[in-house]
Amino acid sequence: MGEQPIFSARAHVFQIDPATKRNWLPASKHAVTVSFFYDASRSVYRIISVGGTKAIINSTITPNMTFTKTSQKFGQWADSRANTVYGLGFSTEQQLQQFAEQFKEVKEAARLAREKSQERFELANPALSIAAPQLSQELSEERHSPPLLTVNGPGEEKLFRSKSAEVELTAEKERVKKMLSEGSMCEINLEAELFTLQDSNAKLVEALEEANSSVDEWKKQLAEYQEETDRLRDQVEDLEAQLGHPAAAQTGREELNRSLEELEALLSARDQEIHNLQSKKTDVSELEREREDATQRLQDLERRNTELEDRVQSAETTLASSREEREQAEVEVLRIIEALDVKICDLKDLRQSLEKLVDK
Questions:
Q1: If we measure between CA atoms, which residue out of 100, 101, 110, 59 comes closest to residue 80?
Q2: DSSP secondary structure string, 68-110?
Q3: C-beta separation of 319 from 232 below 8 A
Q4: What three-state secondary structure class fits 10?
Q5: DSSP 8-state secondary structure symbol assigned to residue 26
């Protein structure tokens, strides 16, 4: 039985720069799926993420790992086997919290799996399990044994370092290493948070610039729509004068006027939103939420623009149909005129015949 996914989330993936051990390097251009997998045959939990055909995360979870939230939407963990630090940027704080909770649960499950594996190993090797307490007892006795003293002659006593002192010195070294490691991790966390804030600010500035350029483009499109609307109005008035059917043309004109008013209202609302975004304080989390809202509004506006284009095309189709009807009406009028001409000729002939009869 292969590995089974137990949890998945979407996030931007980063890795610590192996050269500086300080800066983050993006491992994916876009948000990718990051999943927890469980291998029942080996009792192993892994975090895997694939970008295209390449595995950008392949991290085996151990009980010693810790997932640290360095900001509202960014978290990281160190993988000593892969000799790297992974960072994940989520779109919401809730997704980050869910991933952190899942990491904690999987880490605890990995610890229990390791303990069960050790128990099975001890049961399979009873000699080792029996020897282990004896070795532990000997080490304990040596650890609590008094310092050794030797006398090399009268008045020359030398105090040698005992094994307990060596143990204390080793523990002190480990404590210093742990403090240095924790300080380095705090520095990495601060660097990661700073990188996230800078990246968010850059994205927000880029979004504002794109919004401003989009507004200018919409203004140009609005001017083009107004010119096109004026031209269509003139054509509608001509058709009304020629065909004498103002009702249908009036309806098409009102539809175009409503479409133009809707577009002007959307453009005005967009200008107000841009002004509000530029006047607000640069709070990163608030600006990011507003950027998402602005993106949604931009998509809605593009959809409305598409609908307006469809309406303009429908109006053009209606005008084309009106032209065809006018041409058909002209043909019908010509046909009627020709028929009247024939009847007039017949009447003239009949009149001449009557006049001849009267003369006779």
A1: 59
A2: EE-SSSEEEEEETTTTEEEEEE-SSHHHHHHHHHHHHHHHHHH
A3: yes
A4: strand
A5: E
Angstrom distance (rounded) from CA 187 to CA 181: 10
Which residues contact residue 27 at a Cβ distance below 8 angstroms, ignoring those fewer than 6 apart?
A: 13, 14, 15, 51, 56, 57
**DSSP E strands: which ranges in 1-73?**
4-16, 24-26, 32-39, 44-51, 54-60, 68-69
What does each C-alpha distance from 6 to 45, 47, 124 come to in angstroms?
Answer: 10, 10, 31
The residues near 21 (Cβ < 8 Å, ≥ 6 apart) are: 188
Q: Write out the H or E segment, with its range, that includes residue 210.
A: helix 163-243
Its pTM stands at: 0.38
Reported as a single tens digit per residue, the pLDDT across 183-201 is: 545 554 555 555 555 566 6
CA distances from 115 to 43, 63, 193 (A): 11, 10, 36
Query: What mean pLDDT comes out for the span 280-284?
Result: 57
- The segment with the largest mean pLDDT, out of 97-101, 141-145, 156-160, is 97-101
In tens, the pLDDT along 37-76 reads 998 888 899 999 998 888 999 999 999 999 999 999 999 9
